[in-house]
């Protein structure tokens, strides 16, 4: 298992931590952003990180039939985690603002599912995926995230493994000091503009 320092080193080496003025998917603002897609450019590094999920699954004796990631941050992570496990993978994506399974993807009743995501702040996308899995009769046995930047505990109704827990200050837009200073805004992420 990698240590927190080793994981942080991988993320720093691959330019995951961005600085500026960011409008997050959650609607909050921040002076820092974890752009986890940066590390996914390097298959060897992505594989190292996904192997941490697999080690957790094995150590917890979890049965996993399917690994699912929300688009776009979870797609590569779900694929690589499933490849290492030797199981099936798929992804959920937004349609009309709601997370859904498309492209013929579905969860079979009784399937044991592990959900992976690159970064969570509120955990909203993961919660949506968990709900879809439940609606289709599957059971979420665990959730794995590369970076957990949530200021409070997030309950997914299943055990959570965060490879890195980091506290990055966020602001409500009305109280954002970066807005007050007129710092140019970027809207990163899967629903972003830049």
Automatic annotation (TrEMBL):
Pathway involvement of the protein, from the record: Pyrimidine metabolism; UMP biosynthesis via de novo pathway; UMP from orotate: step 1/2
Annotated transmembrane regions: none
Cofactor section: Mg(2+)
One matching Pfam family: Pribosyltran
Residue ranges of every copy of the Phosphoribosyltransferase domain listed in the record: 48-163
Annotated residues for binding of orotate: 121, 149
Reaction(s) catalysed by this chain's protein: orotidine 5'-phosphate + diphosphate = orotate + 5-phospho-alpha-D-ribose 1-diphosphate
UniProt: 5-phospho-alpha-D-ribose 1-diphosphate binding residues: 117-125
CDD domains membership: PRTases_typeI (cd06223)
This protein's UniProt keywords: Glycosyltransferase, Magnesium, Pyrimidine biosynthesis, Transferase
EC number assigned by the record: 2.4.2.10
Family matches, as PANTHER family: OROTATE PHOSPHORIBOSYLTRANSFERASE, URIDINE 5'-MONOPHOSPHATE SYNTHASE
NCBIfam families with a match to the protein in the record: pyrE_Therm
Name the record gives this protein: Orotate phosphoribosyltransferase
The encoding gene: pyrE
